[in-house]
Amino acid sequence: MPEHNQPTPAIHPRLHDLLLRELRIEPDALDPAATLDAIGLDSLAVVELSVLLTEEFGKPVTEDQITALRTLENLNRFFTSTSQKG
């Protein structure tokens, strides 16, 4: 059984803002364990997020990269590691 005493990882503030303001994801949906489908990222939203992340980082982030991440937690890790490189 997984331990539940570890804090839930926080969503990076800039990613949080992109998801809420630009993609209009409901705040209650931003559970790091949720799949991207579950938070409302359909194929059109993934394309839009790809464009937003490419603008944010100044280098291409593809739809395939985003889709392969599968969960918000993985997207958050990707966003955090990529934003620290740039």
What would you say about this model in short?
The protein has 86 residues and is mainly α.
Gross morphology: globular
Order of helices and strands: HHHH
Unreliable stretches: 1-8
Distance between the termini: 38 Å
Radius of gyration: 13 Å
Please summarize the sheet with the most strands. Answer: none
Care to count the β-strands? 0
In percent terms, what proportion of residues is strand?
under 5%
- Average pLDDT over all residues: 86
Structural class: mainly alpha
Secondary-structure blueprint:
Blueprint: H1 13-22, H2 43-57, H3 63-69, H4 72-85
Explain what this protein looks like in three dimensions.
The chain is mainly alpha-helical and 86 residues long. Helices cover 53% and strands 0% of the residues. The N terminus is likely disordered.
Key traits:
86 residues; mainly alpha; 53% helix; disordered N terminus
